């Protein structure tokens, strides 16, 4: 949480000002015993402020967002090229029209979700964990909240798809293992 637009307040009196006033007052008191010595109702003493706002790793989040967008773009390009080879396009595709996945698209998709692909279980699980660590600011006390959020995301995907594909199940498993490993790190 970040607190913004808070107006700075000026101190009623600083400790230096009070000390100076005491010196003046003691001199004045010696001259005029009837002068009353008034002190301010509040004293401002500057202390070190602790950072209470939530800190997250913005650079890592931006990097991960870029990587995800690049992988998504590759997937969109794959579908567009497959449709083009069949003389079709997304814009002209009818709702009931059946599109056959050709061998070229199948091999490209297999490479994307393969072990070394940008949409493979290893790469996606690492991006998920890196994002979780970045958004938590590296605060391991938030690991259960992060785990719960990731779990909820996979459940939502399963509702949409009916059943998760094997690559997604593997991604989930690797993600939870990596979160556990991070939580146990010293």
From TrEMBL:
This is Uncharacterized protein. It comes from Tissierella pigra. Residues 16-32 have a biased composition (Basic and acidic residues). Residues 1-51 are annotated as: Disordered. Residues 1-13 have a biased composition (Polar residues). The lineage of its organism: Bacteria, Bacillati, Bacillota, Tissierellia, Tissierellales.
